[in-house]
Amino acid sequence: MLYYFLFPHASEIAFFNLFRYLTFRTGGAILTALILSFCLGQPIIDWLKSKQGNGQPIREDGPETHLITKKGTPTMGGCLILLALTLSTLLWADLSNTYIWIVLIVTLGFGALGARDDYLKLTRRSSKGLSAQRKFLGQVLISGLATYFIMDLSSGNLAGAVAVPIFKDYLIHMGLFYYVFAICVMVGASNAVNLTDGLDGLAIVPVMIAMSCFALISYLVGNAVFANYLQLHYVPQVGELAVFGGGLIGAGLGFLWFNAPPAKVFMGDTGSLAAGGALGVISVITKHELVLTIIGGLFVIEAISVILQVGYYKLTKRRIFLMAPIHHHFEKKGWAEPTIVVRFWIIASILALVGLSTLKLR
Question: What pTM does this model have?
Fold first, then answer.
């Protein structure tokens, strides 16, 4: 919005020329989202407490300590993230850029599904909310619609194609099957982040780490000079997504202030489904879907641990892990919650660096 109103007057007021630079507007989005989170965080938490009473229902089959340490903590803190993210993006991004609207709609759409799930859990006083079938159907519909518009905007041989890391010119052309692939990326990323969100601060920091990488990737892929130098597939106008990424980073930092152990609020499915969906759709737009599995490797590990646990139990009636997702396994083994969280942050950072290294290994 500021870009739209102020940049046209750059010839009259030199300062307004700064709004042409993505780096400046990305920094502005980070600071705006952070300040909004700090200012709105406590009032929103107080309001959630007044409406939720006993807070988020705790799984009875989960770690025993959660029944004591997590009891009474309000959920749906993801609405703080989404509010700060949306306002900062609308303020600093070029709103004529279609990619901004695609990413915003996917993020808010997944957030709405998560909010419905959280609401049902609260009203039923149960850890079971929206049915898996309805949640999955909603995610598929939102992802499918987004994929349609992304395909429509894609130019040349990038439409319906998947870029392979390290191999600079190699593309896997999928045709209409790309719809299935892209939907799986978005839905998978959303649910993987949701599974990771089980301890104070565990999910939001890896989300910020991954989004920092994709904000950079968006900037590089959307710049013809940098894309050519790094031998990346150039996607016109996609650099504007760096501003959105900055908004999520700032909102995440602000949320972490209240979510740091012991958490005053949980993001709930409202935040986790939305954050995962945002990562998924940006990876599809920038043609770095496969790199997401590396940068977001922690989320992949968490999701695989659940898949293995469920599948192995159905076959043998025995468990691989003491409890899934895998962060609960380490809780059962006696690891302290802060130890698990910090070590998982370290793993997320290492995987992000490995993922970023693929940009140069071409």
Answer: 0.93
